[in-house]
Amino acid sequence: MKLLITGGAGFIGSEFVRQAVKKGFDTVVIDKLTYAGDLERLKEVEDKIKFYKADITNKEFIEFIFKKEKPDIVVHWAAESHVDRSILDPTPFIETNIKGTQILLDVARDTGIQKFINIATDEVYGELETEEGQFYEDTPLNPNSPYSVSKASADMLGRAYYRTYGVPVITVRPSNNYGYWQYPEKLIPVVILKALNNEPIPVYGRGENIREWLFVSDCADAVFEIIQKGKIGEIYNVGSGEERKNIDVVKSILNILKKPESLITFVKDRPGHDFRYSLNTDKIEKEIGWKAKIKFEEGIEKTVKWYLENISWVERKLKYLKDYWEKVYR
Ligand code: NAD
């Protein structure tokens, strides 16, 4: 069984690639290696995969790869993934997330594959305004940021290609991931890095926004289960039930690192900041028999430990981040 994995040098994609190799899949990875992609994440499996440095918006090259490799299953993780960057400039989000997904779907339709796993996000549903309620797979999409709009478009394109052309698409909507190898622009690695350097920790608004935290190995594991047992044309939410306010996430990390809460600095809120996301996961639990294994307290301990042990990797990313931080945290 041959897997073609897009975005495999990214945070979640690389976890998926490492697991795919362990499970014995024939594994082909496509990645453009943007600022967010890094082959170091794949070092432990580099001699067991085939890697193409390729942009999913380059149709000719994507066609060439599909014809040469003849994958059975496509798992599409590649995306511009950071909401704050989409607010600074939506253009690459529209290009990669919408046009890139369309190209992959076109090529998959024209060359023929068994399954196309289209990775979306809980952000396609928009926001929950209170601490009550959940998103179900049939909740209407109502995205608010340029990022989530681009992901909702890609999600809907996948379902349109299933309905219209019969491309065997399965849509997966995971909640916020955290864990090893996450690029230090996202909340958890930013907090770890700033705390270690005793620098002010920027927290949007009053830190009241709520996210549902899914450990990265659980997310990859869910996708393997969906590949095995999921139904073509269906949508699956992938969540953990582990909801936390951002401020509580920050406090947990400070507590593990034994750093003072006085490092917390509230900054101007992100424009259009969604208050809360929460996924109902009855469908994946009942139909696929999958449930997240890692509780937040365990996952955050493991994550902080990993960053402490791999701090040189994180520090190498700092040179790309200083200018960016100045633009977003004001
Ligand atoms: P990431 O930013 O760490 O990785 C994205 C990867 O895609 C990078 O390796 C990058 O080089 C590659 N890429 C970007 N543009 C490309 C292009 N045009 N052609 C080929 N490769 C390209 O992202 P992530 O956090 O690992 O997220 C992976 C996927 O999961 C994304 O689709 C994201 O929307 C989705 N998702 C992420 C989360 C989360 O919390 N991180 C939650 C739900 C869904």
From TrEMBL:
SUPFAM superfamilies: NAD(P)-binding Rossmann-fold domains. One of its GO terms (molecular function) is dTDP-glucose 4,6-dehydratase activity. CDD domains: dTDP_GD_SDR_e. Keywords: Lyase, NAD. It catalyses: dTDP-alpha-D-glucose = dTDP-4-dehydro-6-deoxy-alpha-D-glucose + H2O. Its EC number is 4.2.1.46. Its cofactor is NAD(+). The keyword Thylakoid does not apply. Residues 4-303 form the NAD(P)-binding domain. It comes from the Bacteria. Pfam families: GDP_Man_Dehyd. GO terms for biological process: nucleotide-sugar metabolic process. Belongs to the NAD(P)-dependent epimerase/dehydratase family. dTDP-glucose dehydratase subfamily. This is dTDP-glucose 4,6-dehydratase. It comes from Venenivibrio stagnispumantis.
